[in-house]
Write a structure and sequence with these properties.
Blueprint (H helix, E strand, L loop, with lengths): L15 H21 L1 H23 L14 H5 L7 E2 L2 E2 L8 E7 L2 E13 L1 H11 L5 E4 L2 E4 L7 H7 L5 E7 L1
Antiparallel strand pairs: 1-2, 3-4, 4-7, 5-6, 5-7
Helix pairs in contact: 2-4
Length: 176
């Protein structure tokens, strides 16, 4: 009698159902981190916000016209000059999903000599970090109506800390 040795198959890798389950678990964990890991993401969102404001400033400064200044510069005009990833239905949108308003303002007694960027929905931590990183480069900064920087003076970090205390903050950046 001849003995036949039956070899069992050794499984290597994942089966399709195991792979689908593993990917599902990874997706759920990633979603939870994105939703509840705001503290982990905060510093990177503040950096993106700082870069975003810097990009708006560098885009709009060359649009100043002799004799009329920034008179014709609005959010709608600026939306045509920036990356479409920051624009939704013709409206400039910040990192937090809020509409950004750009408007001319009077500076040094001269109408339309400066611009304001009104930027809202900043979480407290990001409000502090963003304003701390770029506030000194602005003429003026207000947070929720409180002046934290005026022309010729440094950013008042104590006032900034207090002004950014709300869960959702509005920052107005003034520059020329």
């Amino acid at each position: 009698m001849v003995k036949v040795k039956i070899r069992s198959k050794i499984q290597r890798g994942f089966t399709i159902p195991e792979l689908v389950i593993s990917l599902g678990i990874i997706a759920v964990l990633s979603g939870a981190i994105m939703k509840f890991g705001g503290g982990l993401m905060g510093s990177s969102r503040a950096k993106v916000s700082s870069d975003f404001i810097g990009m708006l400033v560098s885009t709009t400064r060359p649009l100043k016209s002799p004799g009329i200044g920034f008179k014709n510069i609005t959010s709608t005009v600026v939306a045509g000059y920036i990356d479409e990833g920051f624009v939704s239905s013709g409206t400039i949108v910040n990192t937090y999903g809020a509409a950004v308003i750009i408007a001319p303002t009077t500076y040094a007694g001269v109408p339309n000599n400066a611009l304001t960027i009104t930027d809202s929905m900043y979480p407290s931590q990001d409000c502090n970090k963003t304003a701390s990183s770029i506030g000194d480069s602005m003429l003026a900064v207000t947070v929720n109506g409180t002046s934290v920087k005026t022309e010729g003076s440094p950013l008042n970090r104590a006032a900034l800390q207090t002004a950014c205390a709300a869960s959702s903050n509005t920052v107005v950046w003034t520059y020329n």
